[in-house]
Amino acid sequence: MGRPRAFDEDEAVRAAVGLFGERAYDGVSVDDLVSHLGVHRNSLYKTFGSKRGLYLIALRRHLTDDVRPLLDALAGASDATAALRLVTSADLRLLLLAAIERAPADEEVACEVKAALASVDRAMADALGVPADLAAALTAAALGILLRGNPDNATTALTRHLDPLP
């Protein structure tokens, strides 16, 4: 019989979400994970299989803990301005990094990212009662603002032009 696990798996996954969300997959080494998560190397491999295994679990946790609440909030958005502000204020760092860094090289990550972005598009379309292509364009604009750090207060500039939308 093996020794009992000396770490909280849930806490380790939450910490991994933060680490991967700050530094991306390629910016995090196994040594970084071991020291940041407080997990022994053997325990990390035994529990998660690999760095990639932990990354996938962390990405899915991010989708559940950060993207799902955004979808729920979008359902209550009163207009396009409110919806845009919800997306641009959400913590979507890991999703954006996954889309840019890992999705082009990892089919499983690509599927997770594609499904998450499609969910945001649907939530935007449903909340605003707009066609799917317009909702996707609004989502893309909001994510672009989020990715770029809202340069020159782009959110405010864009929302001024969204007033005619529902």
Write the layout of secondary structure elements.
Layout: H1 9-23, H2 30-37, H3 41-48, H4 51-75, H5 80-89, H6 93-102, H7 107-128, H8 132-148, H9 154-162
Helix pairs in contact: 1-4, 1-6, 4-7, 5-8, 5-9, 6-7, 7-8
Strand content: under 5%
Distance between the termini: 61 Å
For the biggest sheet, the summary is: none
Question: How many strand segments?
Answer: 0
Count of DSSP H/I helices: 9
- Give the integer mean of the pLDDT values: 91
Using only CA atoms, what is the Rg? 18 Å
Uncertain parts:
none
Approximate shape: elongated
Classify the helix fraction into a percent range. over 70%
How would you characterize this protein structure?
This protein is mostly helical. It has nine helices and no strands. It has helices at 9-23, 30-37, 41-48, 51-75, 80-89, 93-102, 107-128, 132-148, 154-162. α1 crosses α6. The longest helix is centred in the middle third of the chain and has 25 residues, at 51-75. The chain is elongated and about 55 Å long. It starts with 8 loop residues before the first helix and ends with a helix. 30% of the residues are buried.
Provide a quick synopsis of the model.
The chain has 166 residues and is mainly alpha-helical.
Which properties best describe this structure?
0% strand, mainly alpha, 166 residues, 9 helices
